[in-house]
Amino acid sequence: MNPIRKDIFAVSLLLLYSVLARSQSHYTGPVIDLHVHVAVLPGERNNLGAPDSITDLLPMLRPNKIARAGIITIAHAGQLAETRRRNDSVLRLCRLYPQLIPICSVHPADSTAAWSEMERLKEQGVSILKLHPSAQHFDVGSPEVAALAERAGALHMALLFDSYKPEDAAELGKLMMLAVNHPDTKFIIAHAGFIHFAELITINVWKKYPWYRNNIFMDISAIAPMMGNSPYRRQLMWVMRSVGISQFLYGTDFPIFTFKESIAAVHRMGFTRAEEKKIFHDNAGRLIASLTGAAK
Ligand SMILES: [Zn+2]
Predict the structure, then answer these.
(1) Which residues sit with Cβ closer than 5 angstroms to ligand 1, an ion?
(2) For the whole model, what pTM was predicted?
(3) Do the domain assignments include residue 17?
């Protein structure tokens, strides 16, 4: 072999090796995303101007290996008929497209009417409710929220909570205490507390006590694409590994982030393939199974 051909051969081998090494270092199997906002009612528009109808969403799922997508609605206080209409629309979409998981909503201020709606939703197979203190204008520390959290536990429903309100710096702490005070209820803290993520380390202290039931999960929607490639990356990874990768779920917060960019953001953070498999799929699968009783 002449020296030039030899060099080309060596370079090609190196390229092939690096392509193989890259593809093997990341989890590329099915993904479960429990944080997808869609237009729930016909003609509804989000204020981002981003396409988010069900016909926009569905063709994006398979190319991004999204095997299951939890579609979210958010309820507003005192609008019970509208809340039911939106929840029913989510349920209808999920019946039409079985890859979708219903994530319905109630408002804590609707108290007993909200509880009745929760019971109705549970009968229809809903296991996750979305609550958004900022968009729904409530305080996580209020007694109505505690009553709703207790009710959710009795119904085996998890609460997916937005965890960042710029004007309430104590919100993540309030959410974590809500979980401690309602050990039979599972909580998903969306965005993992965002810029307050280091507070999650408190969970490690609670884990030493027999009363802590490991009922707090976090999704890394928004935080992964916004902070996963920043000077906070190592701290965020350290917190996640320290609290336990088994408690963390992938999420997009679609349409704010695309599936492609949020998946790439998690890949870029530097988790092992085994950790990525848990984050992208296994942890959410385990959580859903524990809520629906489908598996242990
Ligand atoms: Zn969201």
Answers:
(1) 253
(2) 0.91
(3) no
